[in-house]
Amino acid sequence: MSQAIAAAYLVSAICFMYGLKRMGSPATARSGNAIAAAGMLLCVVVTLLDQRILRFEAILAGIVVGGAVGAIGARAVKMTAMPQMVALFNGMGGGAAALVSAIEFLEARPGELRLDAAITIALSALIGCISFSGSLIAFGKLQAILPGRPIVYPLQRPINALVFTLVVALAAYLIVGPAGLPELAALLGVALVFGVAIVLPIGGADMPVVISLLNSLTGLAVAAAGFVLQNNLLIISGTLVGASGTILTRLMSKAMNRPLSNVLFGAFGQVKTALGPSGNGRYPSDVSVREVTPEDAAALLAYARRVVIVPGYGLAVAQAQHNVRELADLLQKRGVEVRYGIHPVAGRMPGHMNVLLAEANVPYPQLYDMEAINPEFPRTDVALVIGANDVTNPAARESPGSPIYGMPILNVDEAANVIVIKRSLAPGFAGIDNELYLNPKCSMLFGDAREALTKLVAEIKAA
Amino acid sequence: MNDALLIELYIFVLAVFVGFEVVSKVPSTLHTPLMSATNAIHGIVLVGAMLVAGAAAQTGLAFLGFLAVALGAVNVFGGFLVTDRMLQMFHRGRSESE
């Protein structure tokens, strides 16, 4: 029987790897996900036959409760709320990995635990807890339960360093010392605190990096749990996820031209002081930005030949993806060439804008990534920026003193005209002014993205 | 170091390479569904949770096992369903543009 189970696990592992491979193209991705899900179903069912399982109450109750919560959550969530949902599910996985190794630790008689088991138990508990609490904080920030801006307090770095040292010390004691329940509880508790402490000072716009990293951490926690249970399927699956999360984390940090350490350890905490007295998100009172009425903006768009739409997080907040598609359709009917320029870190998770626009049925040949769209801006009549800020800020190119200097941006200011739809002049996440708005080519259409787009659509229909 | 551990380490290292190889070919358009699908795959911890929950003799540990299974199940069910919802839209977008 145990050999049959092992063989079934092998099939599951193949399903996961093949399923992920099929995620490489939009045409095959959905079947890839289905194959991975089938692999999951297989290994869960087969595990029920395992002879080590003596009672089924806890298992069945857990699957019913957890399955119902997960299924309802997955059905109910809006596409715009996807990042926080992924963060939440991710945290659950991390928590489960920590619990699994905690139970294994408590089941073992004192002195009976092998060294390698003790090491992997400590790792899995530690990483799982960090991922659990970190994901919950990320969820809170994305869901706007917590403020999205970096949360900073005095002595933050020394305190974090202290918590980190404590976590490592407790993990080491769990491995070598005669540790029991109190030490385990202490390790879990401090690791949970560390997860909170590390995500709190990270701002909303850095969330693509953080979510990728937390995903990767949960994968590693699961792989470590696989070592604890000597279960190859857990090792393979957890490691696959760990590797994929690592790749995405690196891609996102690269897209912001900031090393991961800089994202994690609060470079933006220093921004306010770096900006000095003239900064702090206030424009000089003697310059004025040009405001445009929906009528004029509509006319500009309707008589353009080439338009590039640059969506940002504001589009997601306003849930305006359908409105932007409607606008694009109208323009295309008039013979305007419409494309979308998507910055790699636009939104709150990797590929966030692509999912929203896919929901609105925007054909994806119209979606261009940054490298592909940047050479097109000089030939573009109107760049329409919707709820994106820092990823269009020319300071990233021109001002070596700026905290975002060096970040690759969408060069919208090379277009003949720029229209920015934005609720106010408030600075973006980085807390810095956007010089783009002072550019004479740029005009502002103030308002919620959805309302502004609705007005534009009405004006173009009337024209 | 015993043989079993060594074999596990082999598997771990090979899985790292497979993971990097497979995932680095995924285009940025699909990064959100990719992340969501890998998120569901680490729900495999559900299997580990089932094993420890089913073997737990004491009531306290069985309750922890129940919690672990429930968390893992949220991860699995939620993860795959939400990924499918997303990818369904990608599919629709394609067939309309054709």
Describe the structure.
The complex is a heterodimer of chains A (463) and B (98). Chain A is of the alpha/beta class and 463 residues long. Chain A contains 18 helices and 7 strands. Chain A has 3 domains: 1-76; 88-265, no CATH class; 290-462, Rossmann fold (3-Layer(aba) Sandwich). Chain A has helices spanning 2-22, 26-47, 57-76, 82-107, 115-142, 156-176, 181-199, 207-229, 232-255, 260-264, 271-275, 294-302, 313-318, 321-333, 352-359, 370-373, 395-398, 449-462; strands at residues 290-291, 306-311, 337-342, 367-369, 382-386, 417-422, 442-446. In chain A, strands 1-7-6-5-2-3-4 form a 7-stranded parallel beta sheet. The relative contact order of chain B is 0.11. Chain B is flat and about 50 Å long. Chain B has 4 helices and no strands. In chain B, helix 2 (31-41) packs antiparallel against helix 4 and helix 3 runs antiparallel to helix 4 (59-97). Chain B is mainly alpha-helical. In chain B, 84% of the residues lie in helices and 0% in strands. The interface between A and B is large, with 115 and 83 residues.
